[in-house]
Amino acid sequence: MSEEDLDRWTQEGQNREMYLSTSCSSFEMLDPHDPIISRLATHLFKKTNDYLQGEMSAGQDHYNLLEEINRLTITKYTDLRNLTVNLSKTLSEYNEMYNILIKPLLLQIDDIDAQVSQFEINAYRLDNYTKQLKARFKELEEK
User: Do residues 78 and 86 lie in contact, with contact meaning Cβ atoms separated by under 8 Å?
Assistant: First the structure.
């Protein structure tokens, strides 16, 4: 019911002289009713219905939004789970490759370093010993 219809009915009701029952709020079948009040009540019920439909529609929209957020969250967590599984698999492969290929080479490098250190110590000892021999040889030559 539009506002124009409501205004028109209100004006028609004021222009006509109608018999009103002593109880305008009575809605019994045989009692005459004020047509303006009936129309206003109908308009009120329609507007109330529209309001409640809007509220239910808003609730449904919120529910749909939450469903969409949940779907996106599930997708995101699934992607993250797949990423962590792949990272774990790759890390396991790299650890295995380290233990098979790199660790033995590092152990060889450590062994070579230890041997070089031992050669260096022996070289210093030999150098000191040759210096001592040279000093004794010069002593003996001078005598």
Answer: no
Domain count, the chain: 1
Fill in the amino acid letter for 98: Y
3-state SS class at 16:
coil
Position 16 in a domain: no
The whole-chain average pLDDT of the chain stands at 86
Among 52, 54, 14, residue whose Cα is nearest residue 35: 14
φ, ψ for residue 27, nearest 5 deg: -120, 40
Radius of gyration from C-alpha coordinates of the chain: 51
Per-residue buried b or exposed e for 7-17, using 16+ beta carbons within 10 Å of the residue's own CB = eebeeebeeee
Quick check: is 12 in a domain? no
Domain housing 131 = 34-136
For residue 4, pLDDT beyond 90: no
Domain assignment of residue 109, yes or no: yes
Let me know: does 42 contact 1? Beta carbons within 8 Å: yes
With respect to residue 81, please indicate whether it lies within any of the assigned structural domains: yes
